[in-house]
Every structure is written in structure tokens, then in C-alpha cells.
Amino acid sequence: MAEFTMELNDEQREVRDWLHGFAADVIRPAAAEWDEREETPWPVIQEAAKVGIYSLDFYAQQYFDPTGLGIPMAMEELFWGDAGIALSIVGTGLAAVGVLANGTEEQIGTWIPQMYGDQNDVKVAAFCSSEPDAGSDVASMRTRAVYDETKDEWVINGTKTWATNGGIANVHVVVAVVDPELGSKGHASFIVPPGTPGLAQGQKFKKHGIRASHTAEVILDNVRVPGSCLLGGKEKLDERLARARERAKAGGGERVKNAAMATFEASRPAVGAMAVGTARAAYEVALDYAKTREQFGRPIIDNQGVAFQLADMRTQIDAARLLVWRASWMAVNGKPFTAAEGSMSKLFASETAKKVTAQAIQILGGNGYTREYPVERMHRDAAIYTIFEGTSEIQRLVIARTLSGMPLR
Ligand SMILES: Cc1cc2nc3c(=O)[nH]c(=O)nc-3n(C[C@H](O)[C@H](O)[C@H](O)COP(=O)(O)OP(=O)(O)OC[C@H]3O[C@@H](n4cnc5c(N)ncnc54)[C@H](O)[C@@H]3O)c2cc1C
């Protein structure tokens, strides 16, 4: 087990500086354009693929960094560049993690390369769990997968919503109900391969922020996928369902009714790190502006009212990063989240990003309120962190119930 450290080693510093260079030279200059276009920034993803940032290898390297700092450091730098573009670059990772976590070696080897494509023909992937009536309450999911034994195929029907890269993805990972009696224990994940008939993009959402990231509904109408597309395989699923039924019979299998699942603890610090990146970006713009903008014959930072705001912003960003790094170190080293430290880090970092970006607008005055300066976009972007991967209310629910020992239901 690696000791918790707050200091990046030489190798990590090198990776951070390289990512920062990409974020500053490629992502940030493209941010306003793709925000206005509200389209996936394919040329930027391709650039990221060329230099090796858009690849499973890169994320795997960061993920398995025993200090736990690899992923948060990478997320912070990319999202410092721009949140919408960075999500377009890392969004495929959501689906890839779904396959890595539940798939067999063969499934991992077959599907993950198809999620990323190659630098000449980049592809993206989508992870489709949320539904119109199943957001925070994942157990209310209705998309149904039924096994057709005669053909060894699964038939999937339902509507997914809010899917990042939904409909434009080469590979979709779809979570569906295989046993409605078991609530979220009766869910399973499926690969929907490229070009499968019956999968279509529904509405593409016009969003408040992260507008360079494509978000859409995904309609599944009698989608047939081979048995080999069930992640983990049928034997493992049958064993898992049998265990869940046994527990339900014994009275211990109560319906887990929301997204407040302990399994999310390990992935939430990564979202916290994205929020830290956006917050830091806005803080830096505000700090520079406050040092150069003069009113009443002196830089506005000479006013305590402005300087103290910046002091609070920086303090909160550093505190958020520390919570994120701690939780990420705990996740990598298998430490139990006895106080829901993963949720804690995401809650604090995302609320900090919202607050700090609003303060940045205030410090820039009228300029902050325009699209001539990036803090307006950063503030719109920051709002997503308190919503996806579990809302702030759900984080509080998880933390409170973990502390009180109440069941997550
Ligand atoms: C841009 C974007 C990208 C996304 N990407 C993906 C993706 O790639 N894949 C995917 O599957 N999903 C994705 N999501 C979905 C996201 O995870 C959900 O939006 C989120 O889980 C909240 O669900 P909901 O929108 O249905 O809100 P609801 O669950 O309807 O919540 C509405 C409000 O009620 C509150 N609330 C709900 N239950 C409780 C409770 N028990 N106690 C207190 N308050 C409560 C919530 O906190 C929130 O404030 C994305 C969403 C967005 C906006």
C-alpha cells in the first residue's frame, strides 16, 4: 500500500506539465468556439489521440498509479483547459470503466479498442444508465433485457436519457433490468455493438454548460445483441441473481432504491477533480484580473473586499483538492470509505466550483458577465458537477447514512 502523499513525484510532475501544456495550448484556445457550436470537438479529440491522451493506455496508467494521484491530477489539468472539451475527451472512459469493471478479458480486449478507435479515425463510447424516470433513483430503471435462449441473444427495449456521447458513440454500454423483482440487484450491463439495428439517438439536449460535450437520449427498440455482449457472461449473472434471490428470501435483500451506492465512492473523486480544475481556472483568471484592473487609482485587489474573496476561493480550492486526493488514494489502496469520503470529496469540490466561478464573475465585473472572458462559460460549466454522478443532495444522503449506519435506500 502506498503512503498518502500530497506531493507529486518527478514522473507525475512531468505528466502533469505535459497535460497542462495540452490544456493550455490546444484545449483552452478552442473552448469558446466549441461552446458556441455545441458540437463534439472531433479535431481536438483527434489531437488528444495523436499525443496519447485519448487512449485507454493513458487512463489505465493513471488509474493504477498506487499513490491515487494519477487520475485526479489528469482530470484537474484537462478540465482546467475547458470542461466541455475535456468531457468529450474523457467521456469514453465512463463506458470503458463499465467494461473493465464487469467484463471478461475477452470482452475488454474486443470492445475497449473499438470505443477509442485510432488517431486517424477516433471513436467515442457512451455509458447509458439514467432514464427519464430513473435518475437519482436508479432502482426505478425500466429498460428491460430479455434472454432469447433459442438464439442466444438478449433483446433490449427502453429509453435512456442524458447519455454523454449517446447516439454518436461507436459502442454503447447499456444498463438494463434482467430481473424486475430484485431492484438494482436485478440489473446487468450490455455492450451494444456499432451499427446494431434498433438503437437510435433521441433528443440531443441543448445545455446550460459543458456544451461541447454531446448529451442525448438513446432509444432502444427491440435491440438484439449476442449473448457474448452481456458483460461478465451469463454464468456469472445467473450466480449473482441466485445469490440476490436467496438474500431476498432470507429477508436481507431489500430493494436498494437510489443511486447512493457504495460502488460509486471510488469513481466520485474523479468528478471532484474535474470540478477542482474548473474552479482553479476561474480563480486564476480572477486573480490576474484583480491585479491588473484599476479603479479609484489602484488595482482592485488592493481592496480587502476583493482580496478576501480571492483568499477564500484559493482556500476552498486547496481544501477540495485535498479531499479529492485523499479519497482517490483510499480508492486505489482499497481503504474502506467509512465516512463516504468519496462522496464527501465530490460534494465539496463541486459546490466549491459553483461558488468560486460565481465569485470570479463578480471580480471581473461587467466583463465577467460576457462571453469575451472565460469565467462566464466556466460558471455555466461548473453547474454540472453538482448534478451528474450523483447530485449534491444524493452525496449528502450517502454521507449522512454512512455516518448514521442507516441503510442506503
Ligand atoms: C450533462 C449531463 C451528462 C450526463 N451524463 C450521463 C451519462 O453519460 N450516463 C448516464 O447514465 N447518466 C448521465 N447523466 C445523468 C445524471 O447522472 C443524472 O442527471 C443525475 O443522476 C440526476 O438525475 P435526474 O436528472 O433524473 O434528477 P432527479 O433524480 O430527478 O433529481 C431532481 C432533484 O431532486 C433531488 N433529489 C432526488 N432524490 C432525492 C433524495 N432522496 N433526497 C434529496 N433530494 C433528492 C436531486 O438532488 C435533484 O436536486 C448526465 C446528466 C447530465 C445533465
UniProtKB/TrEMBL annotation:
Gene3D superfamilies: Acyl-CoA dehydrogenase/oxidase, N-terminal domain, Butyryl-CoA Dehydrogenase, subunit A, domain 2, Butyryl-CoA Dehydrogenase, subunit A, domain 3. InterPro entries: Acyl-CoA_DH_CS (IPR006089), Acyl-CoA_Oxase/DH_mid-dom (IPR006091), Acyl-CoA_Oxase/DH_mid-dom_sf (IPR046373), AcylCo_DH-like_C (IPR036250), AcylCo_DH/oxidase_C (IPR009075), AcylCoA_DH/ox_N (IPR013786), AcylCoA_DH/ox_N_sf (IPR037069), AcylCoA_DH/oxidase_NM_dom_sf (IPR009100). Keywords: FAD, Flavoprotein, Oxidoreductase. Residues 9-115 form the Acyl-CoA dehydrogenase/oxidase N-terminal domain. Residues 259-403 form the Acyl-CoA dehydrogenase/oxidase C-terminal domain. Its cofactor is FAD. Residues 126-223 form the Acyl-CoA oxidase/dehydrogenase middle domain. Pfam families: Acyl-CoA_dh_1, Acyl-CoA_dh_M, Acyl-CoA_dh_N. Belongs to the acyl-CoA dehydrogenase family. This is Acyl-CoA dehydrogenase family protein. It comes from Streptomyces camelliae.
